[in-house]
Amino acid sequence: MEEESRKITGQYRHMQGRRLLFVTVLAVSILLLAIVSTLIGSAGLTAGEVISAVLAGIAPGFFSSDLLSYTIIWDLRLHRVLFAIVAGFGLAVAGAVMQGVLRNPLASPFTLGIASAATFGAALAIILIPTALSGEIALVASAFLASALAAATIYGLSRYRGVSAESMVLAGIILMYLFGAISSFLQYIGTTEQLQAVVFWMFGSLQNTSWEKLALVTLVVAVTTPFLIMRAWDLNVLGMGDQVAQSLGVKVERTRTLHMMVASLITASVICFTGTIGFIGLVSPHITRLAIGGDHRYLIVASGMVGALILLGADGLARTILAPQIIPVGIMTAFIGIPFFLYLFMRRREEYW
Amino acid sequence: MRLEVEDLAFSYRDDRVLEGITFGVDGREFVGVLGPNGCGKTTLIKCVNHVLSPEGSVRFGGHDVASMSTADRAKHFAYVPQALSMGMATTVFESVLMGRRPHVRWGVGESDLAMVSAALQRLKISHLAFRKMTQISGGERQKAVIARALVQEPSLLLLDEPTSALDVRHQLEVMSLIREITLERDIGALMAIHDLNLAARFCDVIIVLHHGRVVAAGPPASLLTPALIEQVYGVTAIVGREGVLPFILPVEPVGGALR
């Protein structure tokens, strides 16, 4: 009995150890890939130039750099690389939370209408406000407000029907189609130029990042993620069904609503700057679950890191494959994410969901 | 601690499902709730720990359950549902560990893990600890859910037909386990159950529901008569005795079978 106990708890500890290892490996990989991403680019800077430019920015008194490399690194590359990390992290965390709270493997910011709402907001700004093509604050605000509106509508609709996981998923899908149709209509009536801008937005891109935008998104992710991790037990328990969760002390409706709102906020704050970078929110949590199982105490962070890695990798490839042409990163994420996911999906035959 | 239910009633919208229910469960007492399908057994179980909010009064250890916080209720009552959600494919170990949720903040300690291992061994499913909940049989899953209720360390066990997915041997095992637990830990158990014979064999008291009301309550030996079974289930039955314990052999539906 004693020995059997020790064996079982030992096995559990071992599993926890593997999870920590996975997170560590991810952290190191992100760091390495970030370095590689900073080194590569169409400007053709040497590694030495990049390193001295980075150092010159961090400690200007001690290092110096030529103006060109300095500008490329600090005004173009560095915030883009960091933005890819934070945005990928945020989208994947949002996806993990939505899937957990709705107990639905298909839930993600994109299948629940948050992203199509943002597209609608962006299209509206592009078509109605002429300055949106040049000045983009209106576009960002409009995209953000539209996704916030979508989140509020999902909440309102499901509130009316009872805040069950199923009604939230249905409300989200209804919204996805609704906003999709309106966006199509807006494209239909827009000029060729506007249409192009909308389509480009829909591809998703890290073209227009800046230090200010990075700061904003980082703030949102940095405030929300610890909250979500702290409440990870609630998501674990919700997976067992609403009534069991309630009998284990979770305020089910409040938790579901709050988590959906937080996940929507993260999504909205990322995609209002980037356009619709699909796929990461859906697939990163699945990849992570395949690797380390479904305990949200680890799943949330690890999903975020997988998301960061995918977006960072996708952006790196997007900038280099057809250089100096830059492929929109939204297209790239699917190209590199899907084969990876398929590989894991086919290799691990046991059920993981 | 004693559970006291007084004049409890519950409606799903306009449909009155329970009416005027009064009974109590003491520590160490094993109470079975019997009655035909749709008589309100499941609803009654859910009303006790306020998964559903009933009218009337439910008090536990002298405290009004309605005014307890969700977290406090989770420390007092463990609930084993009838319909087991498969949930996500967690391992059996982690699924049982969730029973510790009312007691842990974030990390789990050695004692929590030891408790889970002990519960798994007690239910004889420790060899399945790291299988997925979706990969084990219905009966094994049922046992895992009971294990989760045990590690929750409740003062009252609420069980909704925990034996219906099990074969005869496992039914007996689970019933005697619950019997033992109530005595070992000084806690009560309230169980909705279909099997009259299991109820008669293991429960101290049975409560018979019919159309949402209590039609009979008391020790099974004196309570389970052919007349009561005919009244409640519409079935003629032979009630025999093995020592003091009654056993029930249903013969045929009153008025003939379905045609």
Keywords:
heterodimer, A: 353 residues, mainly alpha, ABC transporter involved in vitamin B12 uptake, BtuC, 14 helices, 0% strand, globular, B: 259 residues, alpha/beta, Rossmann fold, six-stranded mixed sheet, four-stranded antiparallel sheet
Q: Say what the CATH topology of chain B is.
A: Rossmann fold
Number of helices of chain A: 14
What does the oligomeric state look like here? heterodimer
**Beta fraction of chain A:** under 5%
Can you summarize the main beta sheet of chain A?
none
How many H/I helices of chain B? Answer: 9
Spatial order of the strands forming the largest sheet of chain B: 6-7-8-3-9-10
Uncertain segments of chain A: none
Order of helices and strands of chain B: EEEHEEHEHHHEHEHEEHHEE
Large-scale geometry of chain A: globular
CATH fold-level label of chain A: ABC transporter involved in vitamin B12 uptake, BtuC
CATH homologous superfamily designation of chain B:
P-loop containing nucleotide triphosphate hydrolases
Rg result of chain A: 21 Å
| Helical fraction of chain B | 25-40%
CATH-scheme architecture of chain A: Orthogonal Bundle
**pLDDT averaged residue by residue of chain A:** 88
Describe this structure in words.
The complex is a heterodimer of chains A (about 350) and B (about 260). By secondary structure, chain A is mostly helical. Chain A has one domain (about 1-345): Orthogonal Bundle (ABC transporter involved in vitamin B12 uptake, BtuC). Helices cover about 80% and strands about 0% of the residues of chain A. Chain A is built from 14 helices and no strands. The model of chain A has no long low-confidence stretch (mean pLDDT about 90). The radius of gyration of chain B is 19 Å and the shape is globular. The mean pLDDT of chain B is about 90. With about 260 residues, chain B is α/β, with parallel strands linked by helices. Chain B has one domain: 3-Layer(aba) Sandwich (Rossmann fold). Chain B contains nine helices and twelve strands. The interface between A and B is large, with 36 and 43 residues.
